[in-house]
Amino acid sequence: MKTIAVLILAFSGCLCKVQGNENNDKVCQCSGSTSCCDISLTSISQTLGAVGEKVANMAEKIALLEAKLQDTGKEVLELRSLTGGRPTVAFSAALLASGSGDTGPFTSATPLKYKRVFSNTGSSYNPSTGIFTAMVKGMYFFRFSMFNNLSPTPSSVVSLMKNGERLTSVWDTAGSDANDMGSNAVVISLEVGDNVYVELAENRRVYDDAMNYNTFSGFLLFTL
User: Fold this and answer.
1) Is residue 4 predicted with pLDDT exceeding 60?
2) Which member of 13, 125, 164, 170 lies 3.0 to 4.6 Å from 91 by CB, making a disulfide possible if both were Cys?
């Protein structure tokens, strides 16, 4: 653009008229001036054409940059949408809401109802049944702990279950000591509607009090 301005100023500063010479070339002859404008119309036209081409190229590059900027903006919005829309599932609960004592024995294997809920984001854990139900398909982490009974002979067996299938267990059924504790954990994939719970084996028992030894916790690692 600066080149165009300089050429226009130089051209307008001269009083030129076009006339043909012997070779039919068009040149500028100056009148009323000590200096002569020796710039041909062809040269000006070529210069203007080159500058115009550069401007067109610059305009094309600007258009490409604007398009890339718009695409980047869309990607940022998509990432924000994914982050903001990511499901959050987590819970943690202890066995007794209050008091102390044994839970069990029962004549058949029974899901333990962890009634003191510390957290339940996503409301997937039901303290009335002790069952966690997956609302989102994904990979989950679960952990549970067990504290054996205070009877002279230990008699505690608990298992983490998925849809009735045993995944892992903790037990203490032998020895003369009491107040033993154990825990276990798994990482598993769940479909929507899958149930996970801790089951107390038949004719077994666990002990708990205000110290909350028996716990059941889990959370969503990522969706699938």
Assistant:
1) no
2) 125
